[in-house]
Write a structure and sequence with these properties.
Blueprint: E1 10-12, E2 15-17, E3 21-23, H1 31-41, E4 45-49, H2 60-72, E5 76-79, H3 86-100, E6 104-107, H4 123-132, E7 136-141, H5 145-153, E8 160-161, H6 175-184, E9 190-192, H7 198-206, E10 211-214, H8 216-219, H9 224-244
Parallel strand pairs: 3-4, 3-10, 4-5, 6-7, 7-8, 9-10
Antiparallel strand pairs: 1-2
Helix pairs in contact: 1-9, 3-4, 7-9
Length: 272
């Protein structure tokens, strides 16, 4: 990360990132595959759960994962995955700050175990307290406009609405709400969860989203490394298209080949 933004850098809480892709670290077939996928995608951050990780854990598997995170040399975004209450999320965040030595936190407060839908009633309270405690909070939330506005009101400088429930790969199930959200909020917005194809990532970037966070679509691909690269390319393509300015859709066909000055040949009528 960099504190001096470049022309088209992703800027979150005053810090600049060259990539607009954030990548999860779970469910990969092997540590080597995870490492190769991260190296191919070169994401802005990688997410990690404190419940899976601890720097002083005696378990060899946990220690090897910790060492892998260090080797990746990519900023770590701890998350509060699995937390179901405000206090649980706050406690986990403070522990994560100690373990990972970072003020960044992906805030998750789960309200439903079946859909893993965020707890929209308690998420704002958790975010507000963590902001007071000095965290850079990236809240995982639904695409509800009022909820997202409340998160901004309490100090969140970026918001991460889902496209669809975690791990479904369905892509944006509510395009209208996501586009309205982009139109109404001025803070950076990153789509988090539910993307399954690089085209999904490209689409939300074309809508003006500032980045995407994904895990399952890469980790469970037949070739995770190639898929990581495909998503990185799609995010960049969508961003470039957004900046280029797309044409407005038309209701009828419009000729793409100039006809001015083109001779118009009439068919000769057959002689009598």
């Amino acid at each position: 990360m960099n504190t001096t933004p470049s022309d088209d850098a992703l800027v979150l809480y005053g810090q600049s990132f060259s990539s607009r892709l954030l990548l999860g670290t779970a469910r990969y077939p092997s540590p080597a595959t995870l490492k190769a996928a991260v190296q191919r995608a070169r994401p802005a951050m990688v997410t990690a759960s404190l419940r899976r990780q601890g720097s002083g854990d005696a378990d060899a598997g946990h220690n090897s994962f910790w060492e892998l995170l260090r080797e990746l040399d990519v900023p770590v975004l701890p998350n509060t995955a699995g937390c179901h209450s405000v206090q649980e999320a706050i406690t986990t965040s403070h522990m994560a700050r100690e373990v990972f030595n970072t003020p960044w936190i992906k805030l998750e407060v789960i309200g439903d175990d079946y859909t893993l839908q965020p707890d929209t009633l308690n998420l704002v309270a958790a975010a507000e307290q963590l902001i007071r405690d000095g965290f850079y909070v990236l809240p995982y939330c639904t695409e509800d406009l009022v909820l997202c506005q409340r998160l901004v009101d309490v100090g969140c400088q970026a918001v991460m609405p889902w496209a669809a429930p975690i791990g479904t790969g369905r892509g944006p199930v509510n395009p209208y709400a996501l586009q309205v959200l982009r139109e109404r909020l001025a803070v950076p917005l990153l789509v988090d969860a539910g993307l399954g194809l690089p085209s999904h990532a490209c689409q939300v970037m074309e809508w003006g989203y500032d980045g995407v966070l994904l895990n399952t679509a890469v980790a469970l691909a037949q070739d995770p490394v190639a898929m990581a690269g495909a998503f990185a390319d799609a995010v960049q393509a969508g961003r470039s298209a957004r900046r280029a300015g797309a044409m407005q859709p038309q209701h009828s066909a419009q000729p793409s080949t100039p006809v001015l000055g083109t001779p118009f040949w009439h068919h000769e009528q057959p002689s009598a």
